[in-house]
Amino acid sequence: MNRESVLALLARVQRGETQPEDAAEQLARLPFVDVPDARVDTHRALRAGLPEVVFGPGKTAAQIIDIVGALRGEAQNVLVTRIAADVAPQVREAVGSGEWDPVARTLWFGPAEVAKVGAGTIAVVSAGTADLPVVAEAVRSASYFGNKVESVVDVGVAGMHRLLASTATLRSARVLIVVAGMEGALPSVVGGLVDKPVIAVPTSVGYGASFGGLSALLGMLTSCASNVTVVNIDNGFGAAYVATLINRL
What we know:
Oligomer: single chain
Largest sheet: 5 strands, parallel
């Protein structure tokens, strides 16, 4: 349930189309739904602006099916992130047709074309091809949340001319997600080119001294570009979520 559905319910009560007792019963089911291994937050879209998203790792196919089923039972769109390749088909078969992206590792239950509600464009910029799984997660998540998204890929600092060729796209975006591994330098460079928020995503891509993304994370946290903020390693979803909230302001 979200703000629009609550307002629609109250409007039906006002017009006499729904009895107050029936509306009260619907609202009584609002906060959460219990399933065997989870308490599913059906109130989140109303409270936080976006519905609960299901994190796939650590959950069995049966658990994901229960959670997705509870959310779909409340007429909510559902995004599952980091879902394993052997689990996604089981969930799709049990719940019904869902859109699975094996690169992004996302499973989506909702309309193929989501209405755009963001005020502008989110640009997702990546340093290298090896970062594409995290990029895809960010792009898919931001698109499912109702944003117009543009991608600029493989424009790392080893070849600055590739990035500068896309300056118009960078500067026209309302918020930017910049994904990079290795030393994590790209967000600082992008931050120096634009007057918009830059959400940096360190990835676990790189040789040994990158320490699974820790070097990129620390480099981004110590960026000298003041418009750069940072999410966790490989967290394309988290970057898309925050970018969505910024894009709705």
